[in-house]
Amino acid sequence: MQDARIDLLFGVKVSGFEVQGDAVSVRSKDASFTGQVLVGADGIHSSIRRGLFGNQAPRFTGQVAWRFLVPAAGLDPSLVAPAVMAWWGPGQHFVQYLVGQGQWVNCVCILESTQWAQESWVQRGEITDVAEDFKGWHPSLGALIKAADAPEVYQWALFDRPEMPSWGTGPVTLLGDACHATLPFMAQGAAMAIEDAAVLSQCLRGGTQIQASLKQYEALRKPRTTYVQRASQRNGRVFHARPPFSWLRDQVAPWAGRKTMARLYDYDALAAV
Predict the structure, then answer these.
(1) Residue 13 gets which letter from DSSP?
(2) Distances in whole angstroms, Cα of residue 185 to Cα of each of 113, 158, 222, 230
(3) Which helix (H) or strand (E) holds 61?
(4) Which runs of E-coded beta strand occur in 100-229?
(5) How far apart are CA 176 and CA 43, in angstroms?
(6) Is the pTM of this model over 0.70?
(7) Which positions are annotated as active-site residues?
(8) In order of start, what are the domains of the chain with their CATH numbers?
(9) Is the peptide bond before 254 cis (omega within 30 degrees of 0)?
(10) Distance in Å from the first CA to the final CA of the chain
């Protein structure tokens, strides 16, 4: 349901902003907008972050991903189980899960590589290269790769950013990947942005001290997002462990997984305020 108090403007690129007392003005090519709060929820390449803290390039993690879809029809039932499946191996791992109401298997294959570092969601790749990278892995993965929708195979280099000492200044703050870009090894990047928004809305709700509310939001969220950032980075190392550390990982994984899931999903963003 549309809220009469909200105007959604599409195709507007922010070129800058200015803080004027208790107000903040945002400039675009053709117009300017003034309000009480500016929230930069504009991703790892945030222009609002750049306006606050200067140009700080994201860092390449030395990890890259293949992404592709596999039509579920005709696959062996073991390949379309209604759960996320993760396969771990030395220096790489493979994740699969159903999407599109069970019509497709989404596959994300991560490996350590510096051969290419193109940060893009639309950089196409070759399914033959995927097959080569996972040659010798379990036959189930070979079957998925063979059945992939070959024209829709994409390459994706993984970037992140270091933790930030502060997320904003005055009436300006950041949200989501703009302030805590997170690797996908806990599948929590979008979830953290949604939690940010829930906490921020509660902090601002009915409040008149805008800047104090933004500081409260930051103080409440930073410990949580810092934990998820660090744990996601750690998971990348754990998933890619080599012997003998991989043996130890396999022994403690069930216990550690339950503990991590409890910490993630026991959190209530609305109750945190």
Answers:
(1) P
(2) 16, 11, 19, 10
(3) strand 59-71
(4) 104-112, 123-124, 154-160, 172-174
(5) 7
(6) yes
(7) 97
(8) 14-57+161-265 (3.50.50.60), 59-159 (3.30.9.30)
(9) no
(10) 26
